[in-house]
Amino acid sequence: MIKWRMQFRLESRLLFGFPLLWALPPLYGLWFASALTGLPGDESQDLYVYAYGFHTVQHTLSLGLAMLLGIVLVRRDTHRPGFEWTASLPVSAAIPVTAKYATAWIYMNTFTAAMAAVYAALALQRGMPWSAAAEETAFFAAQYASSYTVTLALGMALAVGIPSRISYLIGFCAWMFGTFFLDQFVITASGYYVLKTFHLNQFMLDSPLDNPVWGPFLAERELRLSRRFVISFAALLLILCVWLLSRKRPSASAGRWAAAAAAGVLVSAALFAPYAMLWQERMAGAERREAGQPAQPLPQGAASAARFAVAEYDIELSREADDRLLARATMKLPAEAAGGQAKLHFTLNRGLSVRSLQVDGEEALWTREGERLTVLLSGTVRRQEGFMLTVAYEGRIFDWAQVERTRETATAFAAGKFVYLPPAAAWYPLPGPPEAYGDRYAAAGALETAASEPWFTVRLSGFPGKMYSTLEPAGETAASAPIRSFHGQAAGAYLVAGRLIEVRVPETDAAIVTAPSNQGEAERFLRAYAEATRYFDEWIEPPLPGIRRIFYFPLRDVSETAGHEQLLIGRSYIIGESRHHNLDAFQLAEVVSASLFGDRKMGRSLENRQGEPPSYVFEIRNAFFRLYEAEQGDARERGALVPRFTPGSGGSGEDSIAAFVERQIAEGRHERLKRALNAFYREGLGVRDSLEREIYPIISAQDWYRVWEEAKEG
Amino acid sequence: MLSIRDVSLYYKSTGWALGSVNLSVGSGIFGLLGPSGAGKTTLMRILAALLRPTAGELELDGVSFRRPEAVRRRIGYLPQAYQLYGQLTAAELLEHIGAMKGLRGRPLKEEARRLLEEVRLAERADNKVQSFSSGMKRRLGLAQAMLGDPRLVVLDEPTAGLDPEERVRFSHWLARSSAGRIVVMSTQIVADIESCCQSAAVIKNGRIAMAGSLRQVAEAAKGRVWEWEVAERQLASLDSRHIVSSERTERGTVLCRLLSESCPGEGARLAEPSLEEGYLAVMCGERHD
Asked: Are B75 and A83 inside 8 Å of each other by CB?
């Protein structure tokens, strides 16, 4: 051991005696800090997302240094004729190889330390809970260490195996191939995800790991298996180094090292096998799901018609220790649900198996094919006013998918503390056959146009982490195995759990459920939201619908969409987070608008509606915001974000009311304007979805001027 | 006792580098003489357990070179050209190498200090090696070879780069240090062998052409060394016919010693051969025999 210690001391002296190398880790830390501190104010402030983005590129650059260092350390003396005398010393080749490796590993991980120190400091400075900051820092640090572990070993192995200077060129190629090329052209483009473990930079360019809520933690098993293999592979490379160096000089131990290398190959293969099997399972599951997708999704109208109304859902969902879900869903169905048909089709996640099915308490006939659950209704039932359908089912949900051969995603899962069960996952029976939902994972908003908004009651048990839902919390039993309840009327129900925090501010009852790294941005958003809704609360007479809960986290990694969704479901609002799709002024206008009018219709789908009478509903909706700006002196001019067009006007009367409102505001007739707006608000300014199209109030110019006149007197 | 029996080495690229070398070397300083490319360094690298011979057996005090790890614990090696870790001080370097040879703690420090004194580097013990002249590095190299009291010391052209004074000091120091151990020293400089070796071998084209005591090597030229006084103008014609081992010019004539199978001319007389002339006789024997 003393020989190793002395060799390590020598290697450390040689490496750390080079002043430039001392300077690099702090410079790297400064670079990281500058990338995280100079965030544009109107972009996402999610520290994790920026940190991940930094690691995808800059960490790759540091791996270039690791590769170079691995080669230089070997070439510095091992291959130099001038240092051949060292081979005459009674020292095993394992000593210099491992001492060099240990020294370089420690050095490279000073980059890890610099990165971790910066991240932890900035995370805590931004108010992130220390446990969350520690968790994220530890994850990044582990990924760094894993990358350096294998890259250094690869560099050394190349240098030992290729004694000439061309090893530098080969090392450069290996670095390029093992990072960008492998990522972009082999793994992502060809779908060879099983090769991810060979990627030198453990932060791939487009990876679910960039999701702070689930990414690293949902992939815990994958990462664990990958890291085990990476360590064994790095060890194998080092053993190969020792073996090759032992062969360079007479040695009785060369045979033993050859045997060790062979054993290393076997160990690495044995550790690679479970990792490969994991991917084989995921790919097979994705292929099964894809094969089970309806060949021809129904067109929009037919799809809407194929769905039927459900009056109530009563769902009990429990999770077993092995992530198996046991569920019982009782649905109250009106008579028109059956529509006189003998068969009623539902969509239920492929991973869930039906155990029993009852209609009005009696066992009923049913069939299952892929996601399609078909219930055979008796004539008696069809003639009733309505009926109760109870489905007991169980299974696991982990829906991994590759999106258009460009990236991977997990569209639904319930694994330990990590749960993402959107309605699109059909974790409860959705009314209608699978083809009625089309490619529902690719369109997160599809369920907004459900046939009905049932009343949901959901009771959950066995989930270890804090569960969130787009439904309203309805209490929790105090027993040792608590049952959490949610209820509410909505088009669908989301269940969400993960590394989430519930951000609240004293000024409002609304909360934002988001990643810990978004705490500061969420607090600012909530305060701005509270300020706006308080203003409207003061003079709008009917109570505002309001938003109870805003879910804000990256959706791209848990959907097949681009992830830039905004979704109003019940009294919850979901915002898909990305760097440029964040809690900015536009989102605030959207959320306040949803809070005011109970819809998420900023008018996008209503433009250019032909053949209908003009309606000034959106100009009037816009007037609320203009008034807010005028009275609150809001320099951010959120009102400009709310469209003020006039559907059905054909351009003739467009913007006339809005312009009128502008004049009244300029002349200070705020109170009269409030009275007029209140009058319209009482009548309803919301836009409702129906099966065919959106329904909105038709407000003519005459209506406006009539109400304006009525509002003259207070 | 170092025993070398039928040792050969074949390189795929250049063919036989050594052919059936047989030597038996006891305690003391053994010189290996030969021209460049004769195979000296190859043999020295085999002795340093850096090369495995294609055939043959080597033993050091009964320990076969087939157990190279065991042999390495008994040898010290100074190659012909070498580099040292310049960032370390002389003391640190010796302590590192001593530790690699299995020395520990205070004995290691004391031996390193003693050797530095012996090679006259004690005052520079705490200076970085990169500040040393080539001669100082050579002396430091010698010190590291002697670390750990090796039974066999392999010195490949150890005096290369030393000035005349250092060469003399080296010879004296080596003579003192060789007590109780086998020192094999290769060189192209006969004077180095003369000054400190008890026996020597001449290696030629990868084969041992002659081995024995210095006297025996010298006597390889016995009866072929002539002293002859000639005019300066005759010298050029002598060079083409004989090997002139030395010449001294005095008052228009040249007193030269030359190797010749027969009397080179009138006035020439047989002389006692020196080691160098023995070496030349061995090396050029074929041409002149």
From this structure: no
Closest to B152 (Cα-Cα) out of B96, B70, B35: B70
Residues in chain A with pLDDT values less than 70:
295, 297, 300-301, 405, 438-451, 480, 602-611, 634-655, 689-693, 714
Dig out the tokens for B246 from the structure. 């030395």
| CB contact residues (below 8 A), chain A span 241-260, against chain B | 249-253
Q: What pLDDT does residue B288 have?
A: 39
In angstroms, rounded to a whole number, what is the distance separating the alpha carbons of residues B273 and B286?
Answer: 18
Is A82 in Cβ contact with B50 (below 8 Å)? no
Q: How many other β-carbons are positioned within 10 Å of the β-carbon of residue A20?
A: 7
The continuous run of DSSP H or E covering A569 comes out as: strand A566-569
Residue A662, pLDDT score = 86
- Alpha carbon separation from A226 to A58, A101, A272, A359, B139 (Å, rounded): 22, 21, 8, 48, 52
Could you give the ipTM of this predicted complex? 0.87
pLDDT of residue A440: 63
Domains, chain A: 2-289 (no CATH), 306-495 (2.60.40.1730), 499-599 (3.30.2010.30), 601-710 (no CATH)
Residues of B in contact with A89 (CB under 8 A): 72, 97, 100-101
Residue type, A293: Q
pLDDT score of A442: 56
**CA A309 to CA A455: how far, in whole Å?**
11
Which of A11, A14, A76, A85 to mutate against chain B (most B CBs within 10 Å)? A85
Which positions in chain A touch B45 (Cβ < 8 Å)?
Answer: 84
* Rounded distance between C-alpha atoms, residue A337 and residue A382, angstroms: 9
What CA–CA distance (Å, rounded) separates A184 from A172?
A: 17
Nearest CA in chain B to A78: B83
C-alpha dist (Å) from residue A327 to A346, A348, A482, A483, B118: 16, 12, 16, 13, 88
Q: Do A13 and B48 touch (CB under 8 A)?
A: no
CA pair distance B281, A167, nearest whole angstrom? 48
Chain B residues with CB inside 8 Å of A90's CB?
A: 69, 72-73, 100-102
Residue of A nearest to B99 (CA): A3
CA angle (A151, A155, A157) in 5-degree steps = 115
pLDDT at residue B143 greater than cutoff 80: yes
- Give the separation between CA A463 and CA A477, rounded to whole angstroms: 14
CA distance A157 to B238: 60
Question: Measured between beta carbons, which residues in chain A are less than 8 angstroms from residue B92?
Answer: 13
User: What is the pLDDT at residue B287?
Assistant: 39
Q: Which of B50, B87, B92 sits opposite A249 (nearest CB)?
A: B50
Q: How far is CA A117 from CA A111, A138, A165, B150, in A?
A: 10, 11, 37, 50
